[in-house]
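Hey team,

Filing this mostly as a record. A colleague (T.K.) asked me to run one chain through the structure pipeline before their review meeting, and I want the input and output archived in the tracker in case anyone asks later how it was produced. No errors, nothing strange. Just documentation.

Input sequence:
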Amino acid sequence: MVYAATLLNFIKYGHLGLFIYTLVETLAPLPPIEILQIPMTFLNPNSWYLYVINICVSSIIGLIIGYELGKEYGYKLLRLVGVKEKHIEKARYWLNKYDVLAISFFAFTPFPFTVGIIVCGIMQLNRWKYYITCAIARCMRFIMVGYICYKMSFKVDVSSISTSRITLYLMIMGVVLVAGYYLVMAIKNRTVKS
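Output structure:
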């Protein structure tokens, strides 16, 4: 109940609340920003694109801060917030193996991205490749959610909407991205062998 009241306070402060929550959500393991974006869009559908711009800008600022914090204080910071070593190693494995695909997958899906951001800084991945990949993937996600909510807001009673359906759509999109990657790689490998 306390958590719901806190979220209502963020909604009450409009764009400022959305900006602050997005920044913190990018840097800390909190529920995804859609928990605010969806109700705010349904309450004020004609401002959906302003919410998306707000979220994208705040998220990009958070991505830059998270990378730099990871580079400087990485392991200490992750241990401070209670991240287990196995999660850090799993993130390192995925980033080493899949590079940009792993970054874009975790940036696009509503999984907590905090560990990935900080591990990217620890590993000192190419800064610009990281920034651009994350920005594109996260902004695509926020645009998609915002636009879907905008279109649905005229057809659906606001009180009956559930974030689980949006989460399901995002998961499906993530699977499609991964499948698309493997398809491209298979075609590429077949072309190289020929």
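Quick notes for T.K.: DSSP finds nine helices and no strands in the chain. Residues 78 and 98 are 22 Å apart (CA to CA).
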